[in-house]
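dumping this here before i forget
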Amino acid sequence: MPLAVIDHAQVTVLFRDHREAIIRYLLQRVRCPDTAQDLSQETYLRLLRQDALPHADNLTGYLYKTAERLAIDFLRYDLRVNSRTEELDDSLECPRVQPEALAIVRQQCEMLLDAIAALPSQCRHVFLLRKIDELSYADIARQLGISEKTVQRHLVKAMLHCHRRLESAV
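structure:
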């Protein structure tokens, strides 16, 4: 199909004559008055940017076809954008530790450290060797020169002491 040269004055007259109808046409497609206005302006600009049009014999049809393609492009883009966004579920909790929970954990750690510090020396030493150094009862007994039964007693005493201190704070 041969291209016909069209000047800006013809495009301006064409758009002025069909502007309201184009906006109504676009409004039916996109269901938003502001978007319909924007797309009608983009239609006008697209025609102005072209030096020659393939459908010079039916400029009105070409105007509507351009508007329709812009509406389709907009709807496709809108669909892609909206399909990527999901509604947030208010029942979901943030995976990060919240400040209130962090403050509670810090307070509990301080109470636990105070409870460990208040233990008798050998009892504290056995507790730390087991819980921090992860030594077995036999290794602790050998290192401190005490029986495994004494290691068990010290651990039970330390655990009960720490548990009571934390319970009394609550």
